[in-house]
Specification:
The structure holds two protein chains of two kinds. By secondary structure, chain A is of the alpha+beta class. Chain A is built from 14 helices and 19 strands. Chain B folds into two domains: 190 residues, Multidrug efflux transporter AcrB transmembrane domain (Multidrug efflux transporter AcrB transmembrane fold); 94 residues. Chain B has twelve helices and four strands, in the order ααβαββαβαααααααα. The chains are: A alpha+beta, B alpha+beta. Chains A and B meet through helix 7, strand 18, helix 11, helix 12 and helix 13 of A and strand 4, helix 5, helix 7, helix 9 and helix 10 of B.
Chain lengths: 528, 339
């Protein structure tokens, strides 16, 4: 009658051993310093930041910045092309995705098109307005791609920076609405420094000084109050340049992207400075810039501020040095950010979370204690109320929890504090399946059925009820996952996995245990 | 062993009284929330929370006085295990969202404590530094809160709608209405208790509310399942008798499951730590009201909704041998289970 029994018991034991090895053993071993095989260690259950301690930052990437950079450089390229065709219209960037050209004489529109079209037609829609005005707007698909790229690039840059900071197992994830990033740095507690490093745009540009340093008014006066369109006034920052302004070109011939390496060091006055080396592709550009302009001043612009403006004394091709009122620490930070590349867009902080290691450890302790107490109470009740059948429920419950932990570890789900709450809840809801089955068996026995028939009826009749209740709970958990963030998703994950596992243990494991009991001898009465 | 030996309570007779009691509680809650407002956690309202561990628990008022602006609008409370001498300080403002300025308010709080002789508070608490340190900090900018609130509401609405459709498909529409009404009832009563006991609406509490949605449905479905079964075996009886019988038959199970789940969340409430207090409290109320509503409300709604219309039951299926019943369930009527 129970010919499959042996196989069922083998399957259950195998499942139990495997999930115990994956989900529970590494955790216990970590606690008691037992040896763990590397393969298991790699799969060990991951703890969320709220348990491990660390810093969590939620930031929005202002992708408009990246679009504006693209639009500005396109507009400047158009300006240069038009200038060589003897056209000098006014060109203004009106929005991150659009710029406007005004004052093209009607008889020169042919020349305008031959100069501008090649530069713009791939990425921009041109719209000719009356009076020689042209409005260029970025094509929607290009805009989408650019935003996408900006977020990707930001993630990669932040990843490099966080790694340079020496954070172990950082996680940088894109949030549902695509322009938000969740940056988790376990074990970090110096938020201010981490934020400084992550949030620094680090757009480094080398531009020739056209005029300055001086006050804004004086500089404007040199241009009769009317600054040419391709120039801009940039403030100085720190050291020798503070309080002064400089006139520079909008577009830089050499940028941070041309650097190969950067490291902190000292300048000729023994002040902290950043030494850099140029990429093979950047060296000729820098050589041309410095060689053709000996005697002029070169503004080193970081995030739109001039940090220093040294005189060019000779041709520089492969390496250089930036100094400008650094401390050893700021020089170190700048070198780090330059090495990891610039952010294509600025960041907006939305949320910031710091969990100290003590707080995390307390949460783990509290969660484990609550789980242990809950489990003890439930098992005690089941043993008292259902007598020997209570053992069956206890085995199913423990099996349930071990498979749950093992499965979570295996699929790489993260255990959070709300996840522990889900774990505790799974015990309560999980034991419900056993209660339903046992109560049904009792009813069947009361209706004068034999033990075997009562057990079979108990399981088969309750199956549909369990299916209905579990599907309904899964629907709720699915929406919780869909709309939840961070730790709440951890809760929804634990709960959903718990529901699936529960169906397996309460029906398959529990029934097999009864079959095992029945197969041993003729059971006269059931202890329930 | 039984909790109730052959129970035969007339639950259905008390349906109007039960509904009246529920309305009184819910209206009291609505009044409370209308006049006093629902306290919102920092995730929803935006703001700054700083958890500080001191060497000796300082007077809460003294901490408040020390804060910038003498602590107007600040909430200062003892937090967690008293042995930790921990204080939670909440202010409703944050720094600017631009760049790295978001946490300036949090820094200002710590600075103010130090300036007023409550420090020196330095660094983050860890094994090397057990006190006079910041053990945790949470800063939520104003734009996040609105979005989260919307997501919480959406999650609840979608979950309810999803379950409504599922039950209507598996049982019948009046059952689905009963289950959804009972669940909304549980959510409202739980919110009422949260408001009266001054628990903040946090993300964890929202998670608990959604869990209650699932739990309450779970409880209701178990009873519906028995009603559906009894509709077949008790075809001569009227719906009220059928419903009563089902509720009574399931009473042991309802009490045991409710009690055990309650035990596990009470363990969570007592031992689970400060962060999970709100979650555990919500679950405690939710489980009690969920159990109550599945006994008194859900079935009553089915009765009221069905009114006097005679109960239609699919033609009697031959008493199928046990064990095959489950397998054949789907192909007979598509929706109803033979038994």
């Amino acid at each position: 009658m129970y010919k499959n029994l042996r196989w069922k018991l083998v399957i259950i034991s195998a499942v139990f051993v495997v999930f115990f090895a994956v989900g529970v053993y590494p955790v216990l071993a970590g606690h008691y310093h037992w040896p763990v095989p590397a393969a298991l260690q790699a799969k060990a259950l991951k703890l969320g930041l709220d348990l491990k301690g660390g810093v969590e930052l939620r930031m929005r990437v202002n992708t408009d910045d990246a679009l504006k950079t693209t639009t500005t450089s396109t507009a400047e390229a158009v300006r240069a092309a038009l200038a060589s065709a003897n056209l000098t219209p006014t060109i203004t960037v009106t929005a991150p995705t659009s710029f406007r050209v005004e004052g093209v004489p009607s008889d020169r529109s042919q020349a305008f098109h031959s100069a501008a079209d090649e530069l713009t037609q791939n990425d921009y829609d041109a719209n000719a307005l009356p009076g020689g005005v042209y409005q260029f707007t970025m094509k929607p698909n290009i805009e989408r791609d650019q935003r996408e790229q900006a977020v990707d690039q930001t993630m990669q840059t932040i990843d490099r920076r966080v790694n340079e900071l020496g954070v172990v197992e950082p996680s940088i994830a894109r949030q549902s609405n695509n322009e938000e990033l969740l940056i988790q740095m376990p074990g970090v507690s110096d938020v201010a420094h981490a934020k400084e490093i992550i949030g620094k745009t680090a757009q480094l540009e080398f531009k020739l000084v056209e005029a300055g340093p001086g006050s804004k008014e004086d500089l404007l006066k040199q241009y009769n109050g009317n600054l040419p369109g391709d120039l801009e006034i940039v403030p100085g920052s720190g050291g020798d340049t503070s309080g002064a302004f400089y006139v520079v070109k909008k577009i830089a011939p050499v940028t941070g992207a041309d650097l190969r390496a950067a490291k902190p060091g000292l300048d000729e006055n023994n002040q902290p400075a950043v030494h850099f080396e140029l990429k093979p592709s950047g060296a000729p550009k820098f050589g041309k810039l410095s060689g053709e302009n000996i005697g002029r001043y070169l503004a080193i612009v970081l995030d739109n501020k001039v940090i220093s403006a040294p005189r060019l004394d000779g041709r520089i091709t492969d390496q250089g040095r930036i100094s400008g009122g650094f401390t050893a620490e700021t020089a170190n930070d700048l070198a780090l950010t330059l090495r990891s590349g610039a952010l294509p867009a600025s960041l907006t902080s939305l949320e910031e979370n710091v969990v100290g290691p003590s707080l995390g450890a307390d949460s783990i302790r509290a969660g484990v204690l609550a789980s242990a107490v809950g489990m003890f109470l439930i098992i005690a009740f089941m043993l008292i109320y259902y007598k020997l059948s209570g053992i069956n429920a206890a085995v199913a419950l423990i099996c349930n929890l071990i498979i749950l932990l093992g499965l979570m570890a295996y699929i790489g789900a993260t255990m959070t504090l709300p996840g522990i709450a889900g774990f505790v809840l799974t015990m309560g809801v999980g034991v419900d399946s056993n209660v339903l089955i046992f109560e049904r068996i009792k009813e069947e026995i009361a209706a004068q059925r034999g033990v075997r028939a009562a057990i079979n009826a108990g399981f088969s009749r309750v199956f549909l009820t369990l299916l209905d209740t579990h599907v309904a709970s899964l629907i709720a958990a699915a929406f919780l996952f869909q709309f939840g963030t961070g730790p709440i998703r951890g809760f929804a994950t634990t709960l959903s996995i718990g529901l699936f596992v529960n169906l397996f243990t309460s029906i398959f494991v529990s029934k097999t245990l009864y079959e095992f009991e029945l197969s041993k001898r003729q059971v006269p009465a059931l202890s329930i | 062993m039984h909790i109730f030996k052959n129970p035969n309570f007339d639950f259905v007779r008390w349906k109007w009284q039960a509904i009246a009691v529920s309305w009184v509680i819910i209206l009291a809650g609505v009044f409370q929330i209308w006049t006093k407002g629902m306290p919102k956690g920092v995730e929803f309202s935006g703001g700054t929370i700083v958890l500080v561990r001191f060497q000796q628990t300082p007077n809460v008022d003294r901490v408040r006085q020390a804060l910038p602006g003498s602590g107007a609008n600040a909430v200062v409370q003892a937090y967690g295990d008293p042995a930790q001498h921990e204080v939670s300080i909440r202010v409703h403002s944050t720094g600017a969202e631009q760049g790295t300025a978001l946490s300036t308010t949090a820094d200002a709080v710590v600075e103010a404590l130090n300036k007023n002789g409550l420090g020196p508070i330095e660094g983050t608490c860890g094994p090397q530094k057990p006190f006079n340190c910041v053990s945790g900090r949470r800063v939520v900018g104003p734009t996040v809160g609105a979005e989260l609130q919307q997501r919480g509401v959406l999650a609840t609405v979608f979950a309810l709608a999803g379950i409504l459709v599922y039950i209507a498909f598996r049982f019948r529409f009046s059952f689905a209405v009963g289950a959804v009404v009972a669940t909304i009832h549980d959510l409202l009563i739980t919110l009422t208790f949260l408001a009266f006991f001054k628990y903040e609406l946090s993300l964890n509490v929202i998670a608990a509310l959604l869990t209650i949605t699932g739990y309450s449905m779970n409880d209701t479905i178990v009873i519906y399942d028995r009603i559906r079964e009894n509709m077949r075996s008790m075809r001569r009886d009227n719906l009220a008798t059928i419903v009563n019988a089902a509720v009574n038959e399931m009473l042991d199970r309802t009490m045991i499951t409710g009690g055990l789940t309650l035990l596990s969340v009470i363990a969570l409430f007592i031992f689970g730590g400060e962060v999970l207090k709100g979650f555990a409290f919500t679950m405690i109320v939710g489980i009690i009201t969920g159990t109550y509503s599945s006994v008194f409300i859900a079935a009553a709604i089915v009765l009221i909704w069905q009114g006097k219309t005679p109960v239609k039951v699919a033609p009697a299926a031959p008493a199928a041998p046990v064990g095959k019943a489950a397998g054949k369930a789907a192909n007979k009527s598509g929706k109803r289970r033979a038994s």
